[in-house]
Amino acid sequence: LRLFLNTEASLVVAGEEGPLTVPLEIPSSLSSGIKLNHPFEIVEGMITKLTIDFDAQKSVIQTGNGGYKMKPVISLSSETYSSGEVPEGVGKVFGSVTLYDSASLSLVGIAEAEVELTGGVYSFTNKTVTLADGSFILLDVPAGNYTLTVYTEGYGNYQENIEVIADSGTVVDVVFLAEEPGGISGGVLDSISGEYISGVEVIATLSGGSNYNFESATETDEEGDFLITNLPVGSYHLTISAAGYAPYETDSGEEVQVSPGEIVDIGDIGLTKIP
Fold first, then answer.
1. Which of 178, 196, 223 is the C-terminal boundary of a domain?
2. Which helix (H) or strand (E) holds 51?
3. Residues 83-96, buried b or exposed e (16+ Cβ, 10 A)?
4. What is the pLDDT along the chain (275 residues), one digit of tens a residue?
5. Phi and psi (nearest 5°) for 59?
6. Partners of residue 162 on adjacent β-strands
7. Of 3, 93, 102, 133, whose CB count within 10 A is highest?
C-alpha cells in the first residue's frame, strides 16, 4: 500500500501574537509515495478493512534553519470479516502501563511500552505505544472480545482478555513490580470458644500510597486459615469480618509489613460474637 502527499503543504504553529501558518517541506524522496510495510490478506468472500493512523506530533520535525519538515510516522491495522459479521459500533481501549515504586509507594509511568490488541469475532490487530506518563489509547475498536498484550523493556510482558463495548471505553491499567511480591497468612477463630471460623473475609489494603490504591481479598478455608499472595511490597491494613461477629481492623501503626518474596504469618486473630 502506498500513500502520496500533496507537496504544497503548510503548518499552523503557535506564535507570540497568535497562530502562524508556515511552509511545511515535503522531502523529494517522498515523491514516489510512502510505502506502508504492513501485510494484510484479502480473503475471498470477506471484507478487509484498513485503518491508517497518522501520528502528526511525531511526523513533523523542526530543521536547523527554523523551518519544518515532514517525516511521516504512520501505522496500519487490518480487519477481515464477512458481511454478516460486521460489528455494530466501535469503542475504545485506554489506560496506563506503570511501575510500582515501593520506596515512594507510587506509580511511575513506563514510556514506549508496546500495547497490542488482537482477536474479536474476526481477524483484528491494532498496536500503539505508551506516552511518557505511561498512558495509551486505542480508538475505533469494533465491539467484541480481545486479548490485550503489553511488551516492555526490562519489566516483562503482560496479557489480559478484555471486552470492548460499542460507544464505550474499556479501561486497562497495568502495573509492573520491580520487586518480587510477598504475602500474608494467618488464622481466624472465635475469641471465646477458640474454634476456628471458615468463610471469613480478609481484606489487605496497601497503606500510604500516593497514587496507587491496591487491595486484595480472600476467605478463610475450612480450618479457619487464610493466605493472600502477590502483594506488592509495603505496609498493609487488614480488615477481617464474618457474619455474627464484630469486625477486626489493624490499628494505625500496627500495619503488616510485606517484604519481597516473603509470606508474613500474623498468627491467629480472635473475633468476638455480637450479642
1. 178
2. strand 47-54
3. eeeebeebbbbbbb
4. 788 777 778 888 887 888 889 888 888 766 677 777 777 778 776 777 788 888 888 888 888 888 888 888 888 887 776 655 555 688 999 999 999 998 888 899 999 999 999 887 655 678 899 999 999 999 888 888 899 999 999 999 999 999 999 899 999 999 999 899 999 999 999 999 999 999 999 999 998 866 788 999 999 999 999 999 999 999 999 999 999 999 999 987 889 999 999 999 999 999 999 99
5. -85, -15
6. 146
7. 93
| Residue 260: all three cell numbers together | 519481597
- The total domain count for the chain is 3
17 CB-near residues (< 8 Å, 6+ apart): none
Cell numbers that stand for 253 in this block: 501503626
* pTM, full prediction: 0.63
Q: Are the C-beta atoms of 113 and 127 separated by less than 8 Å?
A: no
Hey, is 266 helix, strand or coil?
A: strand
Host H or E run for residue 172: strand 169-177
Are 210 and 232 found together in one domain?
A: yes
SS3 state at 29:
helix
Q: What one-letter code names the amino acid at 155?
A: Y
Q: Which residues pair with 128 in a beta bridge?
A: 115
Output the domain CATH number for residue 267. 2.60.40.10
Is 102 in the same domain as 171? yes
- Based on the domain organization, do 193 and 168 belong to the same domain? no
